[in-house]
């Protein structure tokens, strides 16, 4: 019996998801997108999982869409129009589920993250990359501009840098990816798993409800004007301040003791 295309391993409050299709560099095939959508739906309702790690099996994180599947879609009477529209809609749904997930999602990246694979990294809340990892939105090299990956990329890196990557198809290495804000940190390849887990554990140690409301507000305020963002964030902080566990956390800090949180 073949192994699942997407693996899940829970390490306490951390869910580790592994794209498990190394033969095609963990491409976002129809099956992979369906598996991601299903597991993200399950995680959205989980009260036990506080952080999610997303990684790839084999020698790469993710090489983007499955080009063989895409070419096969051209056999339809409409030349593939309906299939392509559905494919990009399904991919956009998955990419939007990640920032909408209550838990922070950390991409653990190695090898390559190209096209929709780079989009996947950009859609995660944080990313840790191994030295030597390469990132690219290189569809233009085969005549397909990475228009949907562009959406996530331009919300992570400066516009001129994103435009250069999109129009030249050139790759950036992990160090450059950190400089432009695509990843949070770069670590030796042999330390990638440990460093990513350490970051996940640090986040998981915080008050879960505070991290969840904070993540939601982070993305909400980013879409608002400056004044509206301050008004919205202030309302959220009032709500947060009135929690029992926040009162306990502040009291514990002032009295130099560990907080006794209910969660």
From TrEMBL:
InterPro entries: ClpP/crotonase-like_dom_sf (IPR029045), Enoyl-CoA_hydra/iso (IPR001753), Enoyl-CoA_hydra_C (IPR014748), Mitochondrial_ECH-domain (IPR052377)
Superkingdom per UniProt: Bacteria
UniProt key word Transit peptide: yes
Biological process terms in GO annotation: fatty acid metabolic process
GO MF term set: hydro-lyase activity
Zinc-finger recorded as keyword: no
Gene3D superfamilies registered for this protein in UniProt: 2-enoyl-CoA Hydratase, Chain A, domain 1, Lyase 2-enoyl-coa Hydratase, Chain A, domain 2
Key words, A-Z: Fatty acid metabolism, Lipid metabolism, Transit peptide
Family: Belongs to the enoyl-CoA hydratase/isomerase family.
Main function: May play a role in fatty acid biosynthesis and insulin sensitivity.
Name this protein carries in UniProt: Enoyl-CoA hydratase domain-containing protein 3, mitochondrial
Source species: Albidovulum inexpectatum
């Amino acid at each position: 019996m073949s192994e699942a295309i997407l693996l899940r391993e829970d390490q306490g409050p951390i869910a580790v998801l592994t794209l498990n299709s190394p033969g095609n560099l963990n491409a976002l095939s129809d099956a992979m997108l369906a598996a991601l959508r299903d597991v993200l739906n399950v995680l959205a309702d989980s009260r036990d999982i506080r952080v999610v790690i997303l990684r790839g099996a084999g020698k790469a994180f993710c090489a983007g869409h499955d080009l063989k599947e895409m070419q096969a879609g051209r056999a339809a009477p409409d030349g593939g129009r309906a299939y392509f529209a559905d494919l990009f809609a399904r991919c956009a749904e998955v990419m939007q589920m990640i920032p909408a997930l209550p838990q922070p999602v950390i991409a653990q990246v190695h090898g390559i993250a190209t096209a929709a694979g780079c989009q996947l990294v950009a859609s995660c809340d944080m990313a840790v990359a191994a030295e030597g990892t390469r990132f690219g939105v290189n569809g233009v090299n085969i005549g397909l501009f990475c228009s949907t990956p562009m959406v996530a990329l331009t919300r992570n890196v400066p516009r001129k840098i994103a435009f250069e990557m999109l129009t030249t198809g050139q790759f950036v290495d992990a160090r450059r990816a950190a400089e432009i804000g695509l990843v949070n940190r770069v670590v030796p390849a042999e330390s990638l798993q440990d460093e990513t887990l350490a970051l996940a554990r640090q986040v998981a140690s915080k008050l879960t409800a505070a991290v969840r409301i904070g993540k939601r507000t982070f993305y909400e305020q980013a879409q608002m004007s400056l004044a509206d963002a301050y008004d919205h964030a202030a309302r959220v902080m009032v709500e947060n301040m009135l929690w029992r566990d926040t009162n306990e956390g502040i009291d514990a800090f002032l009295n130099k003791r560990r907080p006794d949180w209910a969660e």
